[in-house]
């Protein structure tokens, strides 16, 4: 192979690598509506949603156990995570809360959800009463957090449903768990439950523009070689 051809291949490879690097830059983005979250994960693979409707109401999960491929870890003295159907929710009749009179978590509580795999997106509904304020609820992963907004994504007959979602666009920066927090706020009281827990992964397949660039470069190299004959 001639030196000029080798330099051509090296240049094509370098530009393709640069294009791939730009398309895979880390970007953890938070979402407060399910519609926007669903658009963001439309190109992802392995989308899974646990809505608790396949589990009988009253089913409890000790810390370190779970359902639907999820494992719940928490330390909330005196209470156990439990599926309930007492109040309204976002899909079906069941949701995840605690075995207390409100069948719910409170501000100051937290629970970690392990997905049993590396994912690049996590989202869920947190359902509250009508007195929720912006910033009362938080969803966190290794790369960052998102808080609830002042406006619910869904208004229910007996409360509000806030959507919290996080999407990491870099396939190499996935996470395997997410934590829900009820953010303490000066002694304020707020009960909330969780539903429709969704996770998804990012495909590591190169972007279409990378393929196009490489094919164009190889075509140009072939044309150069044919001109020399």
From TrEMBL:
UniProt-recorded name of the protein: PEP-CTERM sorting domain-containing protein
Does the entry feature the keyword Signal, yes or no? yes
Q: Which organism is it from?
A: Piscinibacter terrae
Organism domain of life: Bacteria
Ice-binding protein C-terminal domain span: 204-225
InterPro entries from the entry? Ice-binding_C
Task: State if Iron is listed as a keyword.
Answer: no
Alphabetized UniProt keyword annotations: Signal
Q: Which Pfam families match?
A: PEP-CTERM (PF07589)
The residues the entry assigns to the signal sequence are: 1-26
């Amino acid at each position: 192979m001639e030196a000029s051809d080798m330099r051509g291949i090296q240049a094509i490879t370098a530009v393709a690598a640069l294009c791939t690097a730009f398309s895979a830059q880390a970007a953890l983005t938070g979402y407060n509506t399910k519609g926007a979250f669903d658009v963001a994960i439309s190109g992802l693979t392995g989308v899974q949603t646990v809505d608790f409707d396949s589990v009988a109401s009253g089913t409890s999960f000790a810390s370190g156990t779970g359902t639907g491929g999820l494992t719940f870890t928490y330390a909330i003295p005196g209470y156990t995570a439990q599926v309930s159907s007492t109040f309204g929710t976002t899909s079906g009749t069941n949701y995840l809360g605690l075995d207390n009179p409100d069948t719910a978590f409170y501000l100051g509580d937290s629970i970690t959800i392990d997905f049993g795999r590396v994912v690049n997106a996590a989202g869920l509904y947190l359902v509250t009463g009508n007195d929720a304020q912006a910033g009362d609820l938080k969803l966190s992963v290794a790369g960052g957090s998102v808080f609830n907004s002042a406006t619910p994504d869904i208004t229910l007959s007996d409360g509000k449903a806030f959507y919290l979602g996080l999407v990491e666009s870099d396939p190499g920066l996935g996470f395997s768990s997410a934590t829900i927090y009820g953010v303490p706020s000066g002694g304020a009281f707020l009960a909330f439950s969780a539903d429709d827990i969704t996770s998804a992964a990012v495909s590591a397949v190169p972007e279409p523009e990378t393929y196009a660039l490489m094919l164009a470069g190889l075509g140009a190299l072939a044309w150069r070689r044919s001109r020399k004959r």
